[in-house]
Design goal:
With 395 residues, this protein is α/β, with parallel strands linked by helices. It has 14 helices and 12 strands. It folds into 2 domains: 227 residues, Aspartate Aminotransferase, domain 2, CATH 3.40.640; 139 residues, Alpha-Beta Complex (Aspartate Aminotransferase, domain 1). Strands 1-9-8-5-4-2-3 form a 7-stranded mixed sheet, sandwiched between helices. It has a 3-stranded antiparallel sheet with strand order 10-11-12. α1 packs antiparallel against α8 and α9 runs parallel beside α13. The radius of gyration is 22 Å and the shape is globular.
Amino acid sequence: MSTRPAVLSRQPAFETFVPIVRPTLPRFEDGLSRQMAGLFESGIITKGDYLIEFESRIAKHLGVRNAVAVSSGTLGLLLTYHGLGLKDEVLVPSFTFMATVHPLLWLGAEPVFVDIDPRTWNIDPAKVEAAITPRTTAIVGVHNFGNPAPIAELESIASRHGLKLVFDAAHGFGSLYQGQPVGRFGDVEVFSLSPTKLLVAGEGGIVSTDDDRLAEHVRVGREYGNPGDYGSDFPGVNARMPEFNAVLGIHSLAMLEENASRRNRLVAAYREALDSVPGITFQEIAPDNRCSYKDLAITVDEAAFGLARDELASALHAENIDTRKYHDPPVHTHKTYRDRIGRQRDPLTVTTEISAKSLSLPIWSHMELDMVERICASIREIHDHGLEVRQALAG
């Protein structure tokens, strides 16, 4: 095999394009086809028995009293924030997907962006403590890329200051915090079940909580706020999960542990292969936690690696390897939030730095180990020919 990168006029490492992710789906023949056919025969394609079963299985898996399925994680967050009565200032990271923050604006709350830890890339508890004012009503933590947030520290802060604590667990199915499944912490956690996640329902979300009142609020809220009398207790939305999604979710849940374990083995291979490459850094996961690795992100230090993050991404694209610059630009720089920057108390120095260096590499649960090795070999070759690669890209 040639040791010169594709951008220097050799053949790419892969003949066909390697996407950033592929959903790992159950075999259609393994009960799924029969259940889907039953839905067509019965005509009950929403608000049926599979939804009830899915919610029950999720609640048992997470160890919570309530798991409420909704049509998306975003609407799950909206109904959760509404049910908790969030208002005034809510502390939230900017290094996250925009859906973490948007529902706060819909409800008239004021997002206050807080910086992240430079090693874990999750919200920094010390910065959270420093950002609290008499107007603060809640903290929103994010399990970024599936790395469990500093749960104990955030729970302690929230308790001492009388604040609500929400975890955006969009990336969190398959993650473990001190051996326990993410989903049972804070006041409530909200998951996403879209195709990029380990637990796939097509589209959808789960609100998990031991707060019975909040769970009932989400259940009523997903039905337009209708408690069952065809009136409305509050202005809800249509956030129902169809039966098709619930069936897929049931089968996907049965595969969750296998998929999470396999992703961690793939990441171990990535780490071993890239450990000796200067300028490549991985997200730090606490020894007693497990990351779901919904995404595998690295940071690229230009001075040490010899190329900037964007140059590496372009060179990998020439190899037919897809990448993503997730959370770049960070949410506080979006047009939606720019007029609020003047009120920011935290300069978000780490967020700015990490978002400019972060690059997500391909990973999915049924990915072959050989593919990881070839991707890593390409990264090493690009580094070894850094000056030539830079000149070729500039040309």
